[in-house]
Protein: Tryptophan 2,3-dioxygenase
Amino acid sequence: MSTDDKKDPASWHGAKMDFTEAMSYGDYLGLDQILTAQHPRSPNHNEMLFIIQHQTSELWLKLMLHEMHAVRANLRAGELPPAFKMLARVARIMDQLVHAWDVLATLTPPEYSAIRPYLGASSGFQSHQYRELEFILGNKNAALLAVHTKTTHAYEVLERELHAPSVYDEAIMLLARSGFDIAADRLDRDWTQPTVADESVKAAWLSVYQQPDKYWALYELAEKLVDLETAFRFWRFRHVTTVERVIGFKTGTGGTAGVSYLRKMLDVVLFPELFSLRTAL
Ligand code: HEM
Structure:
């Protein structure tokens, strides 16, 4: 403690202590809003964990979307190094969310059952940010827009995203601009449809993997996308295993069959050719 700190009880190691007229940490981060947004509905102690786990996931989803929109713009502009950096960041965020399931797994079945009657029909299934992430990665499904009211901002965003080329579509357009022979109907397709494997795309990525020195940037892009999809698959897997651990085979609050629905989602492949080509290497 400096002599000054001893003299003035409101001073600590030279730190600024008076924020009546300056922006503080809490002001900058909007902590008053964030930290007053937890409203447990049940008398159960464990509901706070349930709420905060979902809220933090939504914050990370917000950042992932922020990054992925920039990735797509960079791919379109042919600016690969910044896109690589952002893709790496998104994959690490996803990894972190994979580990976050360990915290939620401390919620036991009786603890969850005490909360469940208070959740109504609310479910992560209605997460518009999650759906936007799926769409921007190419897992399009127009039917799921119906969960959101037509006049809302979420609906508008999802509808726009449904009609836009995904990040993977942009990567394929980049392959074409780099001189690869990509089928015309793959380059101008109905963007509202989910990604479907295409032979010309597979052949192009295969050439990239067979001559990495020649196509280093595309090779790096492919591996960054594989990294991201791998992390996403782990997230889906941890979700379904945590759900099974906590609610068994009960139906979901969102109305699906629960675990069997989530298991079906494990079959989703975001970037099909990047995985199928590996057999040929
Ligand atoms: C104990 C905690 C949890 C349980 C029991 C649970 C259960 C479920 C179930 C059963 C579904 C299927 C839809 C339904 O019928 O409700 C679902 C979907 C979903 N949940 Fe969870 N969940 C939990 C935690 C979380 C967390 C922390 C997140 C993070 C945001 C999350 C995000 C999602 C998403 C995005 C979907 C939609 C998946 C898709 O359609 O592919 N869940 N959840």
Remarks:
- Residues 53-54, 57, 104, 107, 112, 123-125, 127, 130, 239, 243, 246-247, 252-256, 258, 261-262, 265 surround protoporphyrin IX containing FE (CB under 6 Å).
- The two ends are 64 Å apart (CA to CA).
- Residues 46-280 form a domain with the Methane Monooxygenase Hydroxylase; Chain G, domain 1 fold (CATH 1.20.58.480).
- The first helix runs from residue 3 to 7.
